[in-house]
Amino acid sequence: xxxxxxxxxxxxxxxxxxxxxxxxxxxxxxxxxxxxxxxxxxxxxxxxxxxxxxxxxxxxxxxxxxxxxxxxxxxxxxxxxxxxxxxxxxxxxxxxxxxxxxxxxxxxxxxxxxxxxxxxxxxxxxxxxxxxxxxxxxxxxxxxxxxxxxxxxxxxxxxxxxxxxxxxxxxxxxxxxxxxxxxxxxxxxxxxxxxxxxxxxxxxxxxxxxxxxxxxxxxxxxxxxxxxxxxxxxxxxxxxxxxxxxxxxxxxxxxxxxxxxxxxxxxxxxxxxxxxxxxxxxxxxxxxxxxxxxxxxxxxxxxxxxxxxxxxxxxxxxxxxxxxxxxxxxxxxxxxxxxxxxxxxxxxxxxxxxxxxxxxxxxxxxxxxxxxxxxxxxxxxxxxxxxxxxxxxxxxxxxxxxxxxxxxxxxxxxxxxxxxxxxxxxxxxxxxxxxxxxxxxxxxxxxxx
Length: 449
Fold this sequence. Notes:
This protein has helices spanning 2-21, 33-36, 48-60, 80-92, 99-102, 104-120, 135-150, 154-157, 174-181, 202-214, 237-246, 284-287, 302-309, 340-373, 398-407, 435-448, and strands spanning 70-71, 128-132, 163-168, 189-192, 218-225, 250-255, 279-283, 295-299, 378-380, 388-393, 412-418, 421-427. It is of the alpha/beta class and 449 residues long. The strands form 2 sheets. It has a 7-stranded mixed sheet, sandwiched between helices. It has a 5-stranded mixed sheet with strand order 1-11-12-10-9. It has 16 helices and 12 strands.
């Protein structure tokens, strides 16, 4: 083990050094991978010298998601204390289904959940939560609880009602998959129109709910979004909460991307009304740059978690109280410890440090939008508080710019679309970047085109 740790440290040092001079790994074409790197597995093992050389080459040729030129996805950057927590979780290798095998790591997770709940606006002894591998899965958990509340026998006899789910046209692509997984049917989603900023329109939501009721359907859940995938738009949560209460519907908030604004006094208004929800999901691996994955779902009534996910197993749950045996409220049995890495970050910088990270990202994005708005060669498509800067340059096809810069190993950025208009989507998810890094980003585009 000690020798392997030396190898690990050596390769990490090479990576950190390489990220400075080569912040973007020039992509290797799929059909050339085996020629470039000895990936093939064989009957015989590889001697250490060759093994280390191959492993080093593999690492250095993998996309560098922590570099200051990676803007391609809704994660990025690297926080040392969070990485430390993740490495310790790997070495400890606890599973998070019982206190017997998780020990204090279970309390670590509970402590995070308790504090997240306060930030959302949930209070009382009934609040609880858990973790799952990514926002798609925490959103699925919210949906399953909504289904089981509205149709309690569904988990035993199958769905007996035509349950309808409402979500924004700009919501995450996991929603149709999750509705299918839950046995509710993709055709029973109603995609709600949005305004010019990408926020769910309340008039359209109400009209669709009333139409479904008139047709004998059962409105089940509204899936609201704080931080849509493309525009990072924030749905009007308070108005949605009032409609959900009026029609007795589950109110779930997909805060995977933007839900972290609950930590910011300056930007908390974007999640106003979150306390009205029944469940709230948020990903620490996005705006807080915690290693993948760290996805939480917080629930106002822990009873709902037990109703949907509890199943007894005498070979597993042999000691302790239910509250400290999280396997009873989880989608999974064996589950890695994804809480420790966020705890080590939070513990080291405090809640005020997390707030600073959020404020920095939004403020940096505002400066970038200002730059785009001030230069005639650019066209800006969103001008509200957001970590997304959506723009085009010289009316050049955004696909061409994004793909060519990637192929040439200059930078990584993606594109998106809204209301039929396609554009480059720059995101300030990496809290380690500042406007100088974004100025460099724009300079690369301007020099290239």
